[in-house]
Design goal:
It comes from Pendulispora rubella. This protein is mainly α. Helix content is 71%, strand content 0%. The chain contains 18 helices and no strands. The protein has helices at residues 2-10, 15-18, 29-51, 67-78, 82-105, 109-130, 137-147, 155-166, 176-183, 187-200, 203-242, 252-280, 290-315, 319-326, 329-333, 335-350, 364-384, 392-402.
């Protein structure tokens, strides 16, 4: 391949060193823990709003009261959008870490990143059509490629990009084509159409239907979620460049303020909206209001930042919290493998070629499934990383990125 040739030409003196795995001691343990926590939130939301019901229908039948209602309300307020926002922020930080370390070893860092994101996009297409249409990998790959243009820019340029991308949903109020694209998504029609197909169709029929969904429904979701994903990545890039994750104790005060303000301000809008709706059964802010878009676009990133700062403070505070959170590091290191495994398992559980539970259960059963399966992934990830350097899919992705086989087993397996 021409890309292989260009990379090889750029790295003649340091090829072996640049293509070797990152030393385990050089990893940023805090990022692994935060990623592991975010993965839990992503799993819980996917089970509640995507696997148990067709993705674009987002929830299906609504429970007005009772345990099902309160479980769904809790997930909507504290996890929905927040976990995915945090996950994409970490992805942006990860891009910057990869670039900095690859640049220190060679002059071909950007080419490696482009190659890495290209193969992530390939994984995404395979994942979306073969297993689950709720794929985020394509979104991450395309947003990440655009975020690379900001890699060496000054901080103020990233801030301008963050502000503009945050205000993107407001354009729907002033630009008719964008508003019409959103209004063209009939979730009720999609729910009625998709339930029998996902509940009873064979695997081949489902794969065929996903192409229809991509053409009719999914492109609308990418239009509205892609700017937010890129915005989150730029935030992650800024956070890493600030040094707070490299020296948390030196930024303890900033972390405390971020945790406090992020959680308080991030929860204010969804809590007030929910309480007002529960009491008066009407929207606090009309759906067509510009302020709804502004608050909706800012509450999730603020809360995600608050979560991340709080986790870092607990990790460096000692005690039970530190020991408990550190258990999430292995599942965070294998986030790519664990994410894809979740899709493979729960698409089989909910779709017709498996147990066919889609549309048959409320929120409590998926929540129990999610907690149990995540606990299992924590155990398996811990055991796996005692013997191997990477998760299985992380290893394949790395081999494709560098164009050669990477060592998999640890030189000395840990008992």
């Amino acid at each position: 391949m021409s890309l292989d040739a260009s990379i090889a030409a750029e790295l003649p003196a340091v090829e072996e060193r640049s293509r070797s795995p990152i030393d385990r001691q050089a990893r940023i343990a805090d990022i692994d823990v935060i990623r592991g926590a975010a993965l839990f939130g992503v799993l819980m939301c996917n089970l509640a709003f995507c696997f148990r019901t067709p993705l674009m229908a987002h929830g299906g039948p609504h429970w007005e009261a009772g345990p099902e209602h309160w479980v769904s309300t809790f997930e909507e307020i504290f996890l929905s959008d927040k976990a995915m926002t945090l996950f994409s922020m970490l992805f942006g930080a990860g891009l910057t870490i990869f670039y900095e370390r690859a640049s220190a070893r060679s002059s071909g860092a950007m080419a490696l990143l482009v190659r890495r994101l290209f193969f992530l996009c390939v994984f995404g297409f395979l994942h979306m059509f073969l297993f689950w249409n709720g794929d985020i990998l394509i979104d991450y790959a395309t947003a990440g490629l655009c975020a690379l243009a900001f890699m060496n820019r000054r901080a103020w340029v990233l801030w301008v990009g963050i502000v503009l991308l945050t205000l993107f949903p407001v354009l729907g109020e002033f630009w008719p084509p964008l508003r019409d694209a959103a209004n063209g998504l009939d979730v009720t029609k999609h729910y009625e159409e998709a339930i029998p197909i996902y509940g009873h169709a064979s695997y081949v029929e489902l794969v065929r239907y996903r192409f229809h969904e991509a053409a009719v429904y999914m492109w609308r979701a990418y239009i509205f979620y892609w700017p937010g994903t890129m915005r989150n990545m730029l935030v992650g890039m800024l956070v890493w460049r600030s040094g707070v994750l490299r020296a948390p104790l030196a930024h303890a005060r900033a972390l405390r303020w971020t945790a406090f303000l992020g959680i308080v301000t991030g929860l204010s809008y969804p809590l007030l909206r929910t309480i007002y709706y529960e009491m008066y059964h009407q929207r606090l802010i009309p759906r067509e209001s510009v302020w709804r878009h502004v608050f909706g676009a800012t509450s999730a990133p603020l809360l995600a930042a608050g979560y991340a700062a709080g986790i870092v403070l607990l990790l460096h505070g000692g005690g039970v919290a530190q020991r408990a959170l550190s258990k999430l590091s292995p599942v965070g290191r294998m986030a790519f493998t664990n994410y894809l495994t979740q899709s493979m398992v729960f698409s089989t559980v909910f779709y017709g070629y498996g147990l066919g539970l889609i549309g048959q259960v409320g929120y409590i059963v998926p929540a129990i499934m999610g907690i149990s399966f995540y606990a299992l992934q924590c155990v398996v990830s811990t055991y796996w990383l005692r013997h191997f350097r990477f998760g299985p899919f992380e290893w394949v992705w790395r081999c494709l990125t560098y164009g050669r086989w990477q060592p998999m087993r640890l030189a000395t397996a840990q008992s």
